[in-house]
Amino acid sequence: MTTECKEKRTIDGAHERSDQDSSAQSQFRTEDESTSQDQETSSKGILGKLLQRRPGGNPNLHNEEPPNGGYGWVCTVAAAVVNGHAWGFNSAYAVFLAHYLKTNSFPGATPLQYSFIGSLSVTCLMLVSPLATMLVGKYGIKPTMFCGVILETLGLITASFASQLWHLVLSQGISFGMGIGLLYIPTAAVVPQWFTTKRSLASGVAVSGAGLGGMVYSLSAAAMIDNLGLAYAFRILGILAFVVNTSCILLIKDRNKAVGSNQSAFDVGLFKKYEYILLLGFSVFTMLGYFILIFSLANFANFIGLNSSQASLSSALFNLAQAIGRPLIGYFSDTTGRINMASSMTFVAGVLALVIWTNTSNYGVLLFFSFIEGLFAGNFWATIAPLVAEVLGLPNVASGLNLMWLTLSIPCTFAEAIALEISTSTNSYLGTQLFTGFTYIAAAAFLLILRGWKIQQNASQPPPVFAKCFIKCFHKAHV
């Protein structure tokens, strides 16, 4: 009995020691696993910090959803006011052009040379886009835009002292154009960064400022020229540009870091994208027609025998209609589709030019055409940034717009020159009117092809054979 008790105690002790050993091993394994997990977590934390420190390395930061409103509306309104005091001033060049042609302000200058002043300012706006993009990437949006304020103000003030045509080329052409370029290019890429489903509406509101500013300053510039003289008109506009634009710059904020914007000035790889080429085709033909309209209406009024105040009112109505039409186009673009809206509005603008403008011979019809055409003709400015975002993706908006502005410098330079050359050589505006209408229709055709591409992309189908041939021919032409 005693022996059995001893054996039982021995067996129980062995089991107890075994359980202790097993518990110790389990504890060691748990500690090892915990240590391993801590090390893994630590390494992930270190890697995360490194990614955050490396520019563009935080994937979560770049996938941050736009607020779709909020402070974005403040930026949108500020951008609208800036556009009104940049593009709006440029739209008022129609009044200056009509004054130059009517009074022969600079003896010896030809109508073609006068037309190049307004075109040159737009060309400089487009050509400065790479510089604007690089400056925003390096120094930020506010310093870049303030440089634009200085150049715009300098251009307007120095234009007031111009006594020869080349003075006007340097001031109202180059300096003013570069200034509004450094103002417009950054804001064009900022507004889409703040919105998703309301992107087209916000862009429409932002660019409507150009139409409203064009209306206000077409009328006020004409009044100032008649009552104060050309020099004081330039000086007053220069002071307004400095005060108003500087105030708006303080309010504008970009989200380049949040969306991971590509601030490359020359991302030529975009030219390999078939859809981007179609977007460029739409843009080129639209700009040919648009700048003929915006610069020619006042001169056309003089051509049919109207006075300067009537001419300025026709130009002002065209710009007022743009201020109304652009937000509406932007609003309906978000619901009906951006490509659908842009293509249909562009086609309507072409038809109106062919049907109504060609039959305009009196003041009443001219005012009607100016207003109804203005509702549709400026749809490019309300839709282009959202279109680029939709076709290329939000991070490529700045780069895509950048290359587009460079491409558009060509039609912007020669649009009004072509119009004046046609009208003066034939002593009729019919050729100019037909040219304008058909350029809009051609632009709409490019968007219809782009719509077909978009439908195929949504259906996950390969691009059609003609698309491949088109892009291949384009690349060969640029080798």
UniProtKB/TrEMBL annotation:
Domain Major facilitator superfamily (MFS) profile: 76-460
Annotated membrane topology: Multi-pass membrane protein
MF terms in GO: transmembrane transporter activity
Keyword Transmembrane belongs to the record: yes
Stretches assigned to coiled coil: none
Bias kind Basic and acidic residues: ranges: 1-20
Family: Belongs to the major facilitator superfamily. Monocarboxylate porter (TC 2.A.1.13) family.
Name used for this protein in its record: Major facilitator superfamily (MFS) profile domain-containing protein
